[in-house]
Amino acid sequence: MSKLSRREFLKRSAVSGAAAAVIMSGLNKPAHASAGAGKGVQYGTIIDLTKCDGCSHLKVPACVTACRQENKSKFPKPVPSEEINYYWPHKKKEDWQDKKQLTNRLTPYNWTTVQKVTVEHNGREVEVHIPRRCMHCDNPPCANICPFGAQGKTPEGPVVINHDLCFGGAKCRTVCPWGIPARQAGVGLYMKVAPQYLGGGVMYKCDLCYHRIKKGQVPACVESCPRGAITFGPREEIKQLAKERAKEIGGYIYGENENGGTSTLYVSQVPFEKIHQQLAKQKAGQPNPEAPGYPLMPVNVGNYLDTANGLLTSMLVAPVAGAALAGYTAYKKMKGGE
Amino acid sequence: MEKIKRHSLSVRFVHWSVAISTFLCIFSGFGQMPVYKRYKIDQLPGLAWTSDFSVTLLIHYIAAIVLIFAVAYHIVYHLIRKEFSILPRRGDFKESYQIIKAMLTGGEEPESDKYLAEQRLAYAYIAVMLILIIITGIIKVLKNLPAVSLEMNTLTAVSAVHNAATMLLILGIVGHLAAFLFKANRPLLPSMFTGMVDKEYARHRHSIWYRRLQQKNDKS
Questions:
Q1: Contact A173, A71 (CB under 8 A)
Q2: pTM score
């Protein structure tokens, strides 16, 4: 230190200060800490599958435990199971209150899970661990098609469900390419209407710890990961970083194009087609292969609204065309003396 | 029986395109709620598609395009021709009451113009609902675009208006159809298909309109 000249010290301080500012302003830093963030900055995450090992030293991965702990207060509080009706006229109901402890799948009480597959790539077997939760899509069909507007994309990026308004029709789960939202019966607005005949409960899923983001903190999963496999930051920087990382490892990105783009980007050394294949194989071997809560990874999956959005021009032209035809008809008729 | 013209082709075109597109919008809209799978409607023969949201959404969009086209046509057509006989007038509530009372008791009805007072009110009611549904519907369509995102509260409010106005519209349609429970109203029915109505009926029930037609004929 004594050898360090005053000038050099200042120079280094300035450089490290600038570096710190860059780090502070960006990655793993929350909403308001971001330099010049303010309104309009959307956030996203990178999940680096080369770093995630599924917390093999733990019984339950750290992100899963942290998520459950952090979001406990938002979990469903349904009436007791015996008081929950079937979804008339069907003889079934989606009730998870006795399976709260499940961590190997998505449920209303478990918003993140870590999947594990073994993939053959370049002549060797690679074990891949994949933390799964809501992808927080750029144009979320789940939110767009909710008939009650009970789901929406926040200005910061997370897609959140309004648990007080949700009726539990589960349409959001159907249009989600990954079937992420999970339904719990016996709770929510429908219980106040005609629970025997209408509605099905409330949908639950990851909200990217929206309450933390608003406070300027990072999501619990990001904070808890012992290997720093999940990175949080402004959407655009995240995108850039994912590309750099993929280039660095000669790997692949998932989420950039899927469903029209998501704010969760996976980076992997092995192609996602292979991961998807293995996940699909696992799912097919389950007692109920149709069961939701075990998301796959379909590559380049399209957005449910693509076809409908293609009709936009017709919709905008319709009133103009109607008016034009009316003008023509009325003119012709009046000219004819009618 | 002698007939006179009541509805031009334009009017019939608008009526039926609005009716059919509205029916399709309501049917496909319920598919979005979603109800057809829940109540096993999709298990009825030929109705499996009803629980496929992508099919019902497409029907909803296409029917909405037809509806918007017809509504725009209707407004512009009658504005140009300055035809406002279906708009409500002062005293229509009282007059409707008198007409309905007369139909029930067999008493004397007040004289009517081209449209009965309750028809003018029904028109206004259905028009207001349709306009509300179309405006909120367009907002909902725009928010489906990748570039458009709505605040959650706005989205909830827009959806609530869209749904509530639809329920009120359905009530209105039921009322509109229930009008034909009354025998007195039935001679009007063919006019929405052929455009023609019995002359005697018009002279008797829509006497103000009939006299005006006569005067016009006399002049020409």
A1: no
A2: 0.90
